[in-house]
Prior knowledge:
By secondary structure, the chain is mainly alpha-helical.
Amino acid sequence: xxxxxxxxxxxxxxxxxxxxxxxxxxxxxxxxxxxxxxxxxxxxxxxxxxxxxxxxxxxxxxxxxxxxxxxxxxxxxxxxxxxxxxxxxxxxxxxxxxxxxx
Length: 102
Ligand SMILES: [Zn+2]
């Protein structure tokens, strides 16, 4: 451990000794750091994907919920209209019966 580590720059081909970055072009040389960076990038991508999935899944559920709400709203509206009609008919019959009884 602790010996000189020569790493060839993947970008410009210069050999660098004990350096994380190429002394010529500044490219990151350390395999470990590159891996860490790639891992972090991977993590980021995975997190982004997960967030997107999370975002897309609830919106799907929400749209379903919205549809349910719409159906319920229409249904209650219909029920209310039926109720009004029934009440009107009832009132009419009540009026009719009072009229007939009189
Ligand atoms: Zn370089």
